[in-house]
Amino acid sequence: MWPNGSSLGPCFRPTNITLEERRLIASPWFAASFCLVGLTSNLVALSVLAGARQSSSHARSSFLTFLCGLVLTDFTGLLITGTIVVSQHAILFDWHAVDPSCRLCRFMGVVMVFFGLCPLLLGAAMASERYLGITRPFSRPAFASQRRAWTIVGLVWAAALALGLLPLLGVGRYTVQYPGSWCFLTLGPERGDVAFGLLFALLGSFSVALSFLLNTISVATLCRVYHGQEAAQQRPRDCELEMMAQLVGIMVVASVCWMPLLVFIAQTVLQSPPAMNSTGQLSRAMEQQLLIYLRVATWNQILDPWVYILFRRAVIRRLHPGLSVRSRSLSLQPQLTRRPTMA
Question: How many Å separate Cα 238 from the centre of its chain?
């Protein structure tokens, strides 16, 4: 507990920032525009997904279910966090006066961790699904693919929520962060803070690494089959190439947006001597770095839907008309050779 913890609540750390500085940093117009663009992008992606799911095959319906879960997660995350941040930026309310019991701060901390981890975990789940679909196409029952995909999405949500609730159980803490407009995990030297920070950073990094490994194997398998000497019936269909292109795009976006923040969290909580002093203060440079990395990470929720929107076959064929002349009946799954019958 910090020196001001007993009077102001456990979620408040000492910060030296004036109201004028907050006005310069926290622009309500930028925050509102950012949220509006993100919400609109995800709504467009949901409408496109709704149309694609009606005419999809069993294998593709499973992938589209994961995509639907990802877009729903991004939309809900932007809606909840954006409402809090835009409100704070618009009226510059004093968090101490509005939330002395830290309930709003804890809620926002849980939301930030939940909606931060979900896209990374869902990306790993999608990579695993495509890996099995490409390397072991006969190992999964087609009739259960969509139901199983929703079950996995639900398990991902439950796992991310369980992790986000740990500070409420005493493992780690959620505190108001610079410039006083959002709450997140504490980068302090206490065991609970270190454990929770490392758990968040390592789980996110592991999800990205697993996605990279499985997607690399899947792409290599598709390339080998497509350019190899196998029969034409074994070559990948356009939809299989489309799914891999979308999945690789989602992985690249998640890596670029989230890895700087995850690495920064791990480095800060492991730093010796500790980056945070006994009064709960970080240096101004580190506070600003955390804010920048967080803003970069939030771009993931805007870019995810555009990866799906732009990497569809209809869009790719318009950019590269030559691709549309390829046969659409080719499949990755081997076909049984029919023996000629005697007349």
Answer: 26
- The rounded distance, in Å, linking the Cα atoms of 94 and 105 is 12
For residue 219, the tally of other CB atoms under 10 A from its CB is 17
Q: Where are the beta strands (DSSP E) in the chain?
A: 174-177, 182-185
How far, in Å, are 233, 336, 338 from residue 341 at the CA level? 21, 15, 9
Residues ≥6 apart with Cβ < 8 Å to 124: 206, 207, 208, 210, 211, 214
- Distance separating alpha carbons of residues 176 and 8, to the nearest angstrom: 12
CB 163 within 8 A of CB 111: no
pLDDT digits (tens, 9 = 90+) for 239-250: 677 788 888 999
**pLDDT one-digit tens code per residue, 85-140:** 888 888 877 788 888 888 999 999 999 999 999 999 999 999 998 888 887 765 55
Burial string for 220-232 (b: 16+ CB within 10 Å, else e) reads ebbeeeeeeeeee
Whole-prediction pTM: 0.85
Q: Mapping DSSP to helix (H, G, I), strand (E, B) and coil, where does residue 341 land?
A: coil
Q: Which of 203, 106, 191 is nearest to 159 (CA)?
A: 203
Q: How many CB atoms lie within 10 A of CB 233?
A: 14
Beta bridge partners of 185: 174
- Interacting residues of 314 by C-beta distance below 8 A, sequence separation 6+: none
Tell me the three state secondary structure of residue 110: helix
Please answer whether residues 184 and 262 qualify as being in contact, where contact means their C-beta atoms are separated by less than 8 angstroms. Answer: no
Cα–Cα dist 246/311, whole Å: 6
Average pLDDT over residues 311-334: 55
| Dihedral sign computed on CA atoms, order 181, 195, 260, 110 | negative
| Interatomic CA distance for residues 133 and 126, integer angstroms | 10
